[in-house]
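Ops channel
N.P.: pipeline sanity check, posting one input/output pair.
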């Protein structure tokens, strides 16, 4: 799959696969539009604690679609750190879908930033259909490491 396929279809500025570890997370895959800086260096020293508010929200829903991150951060006190991060990186909107392993456990997140739906494609459906593909990628990577 060409690196830009997801972001071109969803008109996003970033596409990331955030792989979860025991107490940290790693960017397993990132693509950034030519007009934005990649997020990998900004996310290098951030603990998994950064994802806790997102995990709490995902306990109640299948995906996370925050259309106005600044407004959401004002309304949700425990999202202030994430709101600051997004503001510093010119991220107005985030769309996040969990990637689950064969046992239904979340092993990663697919994240698109600044997604603007023009009605031609449903970005949520796109990510939900791609999540199993990335799950297989992570499973294959784990098998190669052993």
């Amino acid at each position: 799959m060409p690196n830009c396929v997801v972001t071109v279809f969803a008109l996003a500025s970033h596409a990331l696969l955030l792989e979860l570890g025991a107490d940290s997370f790693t960017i397993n895959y990132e693509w950034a539009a030519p007009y934005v800086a990649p997020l990998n260096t900004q996310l290098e020293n951030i603990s998994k604690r950064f994802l806790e508010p997102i995990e709490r929200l995902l306990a109640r829903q299948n995906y996370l679609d925050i259309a106005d991150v600044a407004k959401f951060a004002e309304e949700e006190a425990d999202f202030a750190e994430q709101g600051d991060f997004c503001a510093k990186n010119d991220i107005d909107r985030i769309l996040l879908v969990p990637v689950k392993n064969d046992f239904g456990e979340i092993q990663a997140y697919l994240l698109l930033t600044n997604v603007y739906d023009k009605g031609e494609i449903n970005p949520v459906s796109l990510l939900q259909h791609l999540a199993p593909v990335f799950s297989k990628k992570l499973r294959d990577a784990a098998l190669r490491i052993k």
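N.P.: looks fine end to end. The first helix runs from residue 5 to 10.
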